[in-house]
Write a structure and sequence with these properties.
20% strand, 2 helices
């Protein structure tokens, strides 16, 4: 199970615990909780290597899930 699968599998309990926040997940562990995605990214990259964690918006409805990539993405 990767970090995103961990998030999806535990989304209901994570939302119950954290509410509508941005969760930083690494190795299936919540390592940060923030109100804003940009702050989550800026703060986490100070202590973790980019590409080793995900930032996921915690929502109460799985149909609102959006996968966000924290890397340079090229669209052809």
């Amino acid at each position: 199970m990767n970090d995103y699968e961990y998030f999806v599998h535990n989304m209901s309990s994570l939302y119950g615990q954290y509410g509508h926040k941005f969760l930083v997940i690494k190795n299936k562990t919540i390592i940060g909780v923030y109100d804003d995605m940009d702050i989550a990214y800026d703060e986490t990259r100070k202590i973790e290597d980019v590409g080793t964690f995900i930032i996921q918006e915690c929502v109460d409805d799985p149909t609102k899930l959006v996968l966000t990539f924290q890397a340079n993405v090229s669209v052809a």
